[in-house]
Amino acid sequence: MKGKKRKQSKPKQCGPCNMCCTVLKIDDNELKKEADTPCKHLSPEEGCSIYADRPETCRSWLCAWLAIPGLPNTLRPDKCGFVIRPSDSPFDYTLTASKNHTQVLTSTAALEFIATCIRSNFVISVNVPTKPGHENAKTMLTGFVREEDLRSEQSLRIKVLSAMVSGANANTDLIVKIS
Ligand code: SF4
Ligand code: SF4
């Protein structure tokens, strides 16, 4: 008996998304840019204007949405408004928005991802803007959000908002201009 062919899912593509070209800080020999600043090579019309020759850092960097096949298309960063940044650990993620941080990081899409991470005992954080001219605060939700906060979207939203308020008041380093 012939076995059924498994349907192969197509590899994900960035498509029109270019959010990492704005939110990431890049400081290597080939390219230097501040966090939360559009790359000088980013064109509103065509995306990366040096795509064929883009630096190795850009070629090798994958956001978690792109890297993890099971994450749905609704979490593509240009659709949900936040990038899920991976870390050295496959169990540790940080959500970073490029604008409208409060709204985006407490959206239904963000809260569902946060709840899944908390239930799975992953480390999950949000990147929160602080005082002008200062670095964002990486605010960890794991340990702060409790099981009972997951009982409804609204209770989780209130908890995440509360973490974001403390993150916004954190003392972070001054942004050092990269040149
Ligand atoms: S944020 Fe992710 S999906 Fe968007 S351009 Fe970067 S790697 Fe691609
Ligand atoms: S060089 Fe291209 S891919 Fe790299 S950050 Fe700039 S616009 Fe994005």
Fold blueprint:
Layout: H1 20-23, E1 26-27, E2 32-33, E3 42-43, E4 47-48, H2 56-60, H3 64-67, H4 77-80, E5 82-85, E6 92-97, H5 101-105, H6 108-119, E7 123-128, E8 137-140, H7 153-168
Parallel strand pairs: 6-7
Antiparallel strand pairs: 1-2, 3-4, 5-6, 7-8
Helix pairs in contact: 6-7
The protein binds iron/sulfur cluster (2 copies).
What is the structure about, briefly put?
The protein has 179 residues and is α+β, with helices and mostly antiparallel strands. The protein is built from 7 helices and 8 strands.
Describe this structure in words.
The protein is an alpha+beta fold and 179 residues long. The longest helix is centred in the C-terminal third of the chain and has 16 residues, at 153-168. A 4-stranded mixed sheet has the order 5-6-7-8. It has a two-stranded antiparallel ribbon with strand order 1-2. It has 2 domains: 17-61, no CATH class; 62-168, no CATH class. It has helices at residues 20-23, 56-60, 64-67, 77-80, 101-105, 108-119, 153-168, and strands at residues 26-27, 32-33, 42-43, 47-48, 82-85, 92-97, 123-128, 137-140. The termini are far apart. The chain is built from 7 helices and 8 strands; from the N terminus they run αββββαααββααββα. Helix 6 (108-119) crosses helix 7. It is globular, with a radius of gyration of 18 Å. A hairpin with an 8-residue loop joins strand 7 (123-128) and strand 8 (137-140). The structure holds iron/sulfur cluster (2 copies).
